[in-house]
Design a protein that fits this description.
Number of strands: 11
Number of helices: 4
Distance between the termini: 75 Å
Strand content: 5-15%
Largest sheet: 4 strands, antiparallel
Helix content: 25-40%
């Protein structure tokens, strides 16, 4: 009878070690590939929103819809309906809130993936239904009073940035309109977060420790820094902007970057 061959314990451990090393090498690369795919899908989302807004303006004497709230990702429910129509999406006849359209959320934002329905059909902490939806993108739309004057504070930082109210403007190719979410808290006086953070926004979600989730930046480099974001311009083109090129532009709690 011929003897049967088998792995020795040392050989088995060597194989396991090699597999572990290969996984350690491949996982970061796979994560980068997945993030690049998400960035591409996100850019496509923003491009569709630009088309929807341009179509809205074409039907309203070049005027764009107004902003909906303090947080730049808030959008009036009726405006979301019109944008969906403009980009060819249909609402459910039985319930307009389901299914939640993916185009309104960045695929890299894990918080929105977990709580998308809650964001789309947003209710205030007291249970009342909000007049706006919490989307996954910043809308740099102006808000005017009855006299036609902007009620929004001036945008901070360099470059003479402005809120957008019309597509009939000079410099449409450099005027930002729809952008990825890059949020941070200011200096936070907690032991866990001694300085501003991008991954767990204490100012949002009715305080994440109570709701079970925090608001977050869509494209993260680390808890303390964004990776950057897709920027959609009034003329309809989209490009990626690295975080090192962004500035604090708006808000105090939280801070909006672009």
């Amino acid at each position: 009878m011929s003897g049967q061959k088998a792995f020795t314990l040392i050989e088995l451990l060597v194989v396991i070690a090699i597999i572990a090393i290969l996984m350690a090498i491949l996982m970061p690369a796979l994560s980068r590939v997945r993030e690049m795919a998400n960035r591409s899908a996100c850019s496509s989302n923003i491009h569709q929103h630009l088309i929807g807004l341009i179509m809205y303006a074409d039907e309203n004497e070049s005027k764009l819809p107004p902003g909906a709230g303090y947080w730049l990702w808030d959008m009036d429910r009726e405006i979301t309906r019109q944008l969906m129509k403009n980009i060819g999406l249909k609402l459910s006849e039985s319930n307009e809130d389901t299914p939640v359209p993916d185009v309104f959320y960045c695929p890299s934002n894990l918080t929105h993936k977990r709580s998308r329905q809650r964001c789309w059909d947003y209710h205030h902490p007291d249970g009342s239904r909000a007049s706006y939806r919490v989307t996954g993108y910043f809308w740099l739309l102006d808000t005017l009073n009855e006299q036609g004057e902007s009620v929004k504070p001036a945008i901070r930082g360099s470059g003479n940035k402005r809120w957008i109210r019309t597509t009939n403007m000079k410099g449409a190719g450099i005027a930002e309109l729809v952008i990825d979410v890059t949020l941070s808290d200011p200096v936070v006086s907690t032991q866990a977060y001694p300085s501003g953070n991008f991954a767990q926004i204490i100012a949002g979600s009715g305080q994440g420790q109570y709701t079970g989730y925090y608001d977050t930046t869509s494209h993260l480099r680390s808890d303390k820094e964004g990776a950057g974001g897709n920027i959609g311009f009034v003329d309809g083109h989209v490009k990626w902007r690295h975080f090192k090129e962004m500035e604090k532009r708006y808000g105090a709690t939280p801070i909006h970057w672009w």
